[in-house]
Design brief:
Helix content is 46%, strand content 11%. By secondary structure, it is an alpha/beta fold.
Length: 248
């Protein structure tokens, strides 16, 4: 299951990508312009009405600026041939470019624009896939929680290599003496069963926190060489009746 911090950064990243793409799309949106044909452009050049022609990085779109108008016009070409070659097919010769009019400016292809265009194309699909993945992971985490609802959280410590014995418990001599009988039961339960004795079901250790109750239980496990299970009371307190007891 994803951690809340990872999920939060993932959402922030998606929001940032969406904002950047929206800003770029707004800035790159074409302004209201007048569309003219190449034949009309050629006629305007012959009439010396055009001051500048700007060719975009792809060589397909022309932005035309007129001498007597602040509003540019737009025209399209195939991009295979240069603007000079295209206009020559409409009778525009080098004489029509006298006095540097019109000025032809070629823009350099924008790598950033190409990347942003690609992002704008694939962004909807990426967002959909990311949303489905996020929902799937959330549902998977919910299923895991549901499956582990009644699962015990107890931790087992093996008794094959005991780390705690009665020698590690300082004091509590009376408690250790009484618990020594429990160790004998745990070591050789068959011997006591053969005599008809009943093995104790458990021992209740009462005392304030930090008085050594858990240490004594570990010592019993270490002395008898049996596994030791540990669980805190706060881990099996649930709002549903019976769940905590079933875990224990």
């Amino acid at each position: 299951m994803n951690s809340p911090r990872t999920t939060r950064w993932f959402v922030y990243l998606l929001i940032g990508i969406v904002i950047i793409t929206m800003v770029w799309s707004y800035n790159a949106a074409p302004q209201p312009t007048q569309d003219i044909s190449i034949s009309q452009l050629a006629q305007d050049i012959q009439e010396n009405a055009v001051s500048e022609i700007q060719v975009d990085g792809d060589g397909r779109q022309l932005t035309i600026t007129y001498n007597d108008s602040d509003e540019p016009a737009v025209s399209q070409i195939s991009g295979v041939s240069s603007i000079e070659e295209v206009l020559s097919n409409y009778g525009i010769t080098s004489e029509d470019y006298q006095d540097g009019r019109p000025t032809i400016i070629y823009e350099k292809p924008s790598e950033v624009g190409n990347w942003l265009s690609a992002i704008g194309i694939f962004l909807p699909a990426i967002l959909i896939i990311a949303f489905i993945y996020f929902i799937f992971r959330q549902a998977q985490g919910t299923n895991n929680q549901a499956a582990a609802f009644g699962k015990s959280r107890a931790r087992m410590f093996t008794g094959d290599h005991p780390s705690v014995t009665f020698d590690d418990v300082a004091g509590a001599d009376e408690a250790k003496a009484e618990l020594a009988e429990i160790v004998e039961f745990l070591k050789e339960p068959e011997k006591f069963v053969s005599f008809g004795a009943r093995i104790p079901k458990g021992v209740l250790l009462v005392g304030s926190p930090g008085t050594g109750k858990t240490l004594l239980a570990k010592a019993i496990s270490g002395e008898a060489g049996v596994p030791f299970f540990s669980i805190a009371g706060s881990e099996f307190v649930e709002m549903f009746v019976g769940v905590g007891a079933s875990r224990v």
